[in-house]
Amino acid sequence: MMRIQWIFLLLATWLMTSMARVHAADTKAFPDFEEKTATIEHIQALKHGGFVLYMRHGTSDTSKADRAPQVDLNDCTTQRPLTDEGRRLAARVGQEIRNHGIPLGEVLVSPMCRTRQTAEAAFGQNYEVNMDLMYTANLTSEEKAQRSVVTKHLLSTPVPPGVNRVIVAHAPNMMDAAGYFPKPEGIIIIFRPMGEKGFEYIASIPPARWQELK
Fold this sequence. Notes:
Strand content: 5-15%
CATH architecture of the largest domain: 3-Layer(aba) Sandwich
Radius of gyration: 21 Å
Shape: globular
Order of helices and strands: HHEHEHEHEHEE
Number of strands: 6
Structural class: alpha/beta
CATH superfamily of the largest domain: Phosphoglycerate mutase-like
Distance between the termini: 79 Å
Helix content: 25-40%
């Protein structure tokens, strides 16, 4: 009997140690993130293409939460909406991109109303909805992991010279994929895709920063 108790004690100790190691690994999944503000040199580089621009949707009405898990992608009243200021903000960011001569290729967008409305205000109707860019804060851990793989793939896949890929999505999705919760709404994050080597964070452009990049 004592031998059995001793074995169970060893197993319990091993299990607790293993769980502690897993937790430690999880907390170190991402290095300490250092946000960098974009410079004029970054804008000049974007003009040559080959980058990924990850845009967080425009200002949203935080007093109206998504009705998870009953969110209807075809019914914006079940979702946290973009505000009028959010639409204007998205339009300004899109205009700044054009004014700076930054060439765009494909525009991939989360299916949520606030991201689709942001994309339309910023870039017109020439965008593609990608279901895997769905807002992850309302999802299960397994669903988050699946979508994180797709986001990482989109950030890593090389972009042809002369254009930049645009992703319009959400802050939690970026946190899942890169350990970075981008603020404020309307911010653009620049990544260099490196194929099998992943992606490199370059810099961020908060909405108010555009006027200083001329």
